[in-house]
Write a structure and sequence with these properties.
This protein is mainly α. The longest helix is centred in the last third of the chain and has 27 residues. The relative contact order is 0.06.
């Protein structure tokens, strides 16, 4: 469209440019790594807060 190659060719070209992944590198994309660890941190913190509220809060009428 508009003189550009099809999407399949553009994806194949990007994959050729990127090359093979090296062993031991799980997240070659830095923003993806940051997003993953921040989301895991939010999940852990919310679970800890929920467990604290469950075990510590006496609730109404106690």
């Amino acid at each position: 469209m508009f003189g550009r190659p099809p999407i399949e060719e553009r994806i194949a070209e990007r994959l050729r440019e990127r090359g093979d992944l090296t062993p031991g590198r799980v997240f070659p994309h830095a923003p993806a790594k940051m997003l993953f660890f921040v989301s895991m941190g939010v999940v852990v913190v919310t679970h800890v807060i929920a467990l604290c509220m469950y075990f510590v809060d006496a609730g109404p009428g106690r």
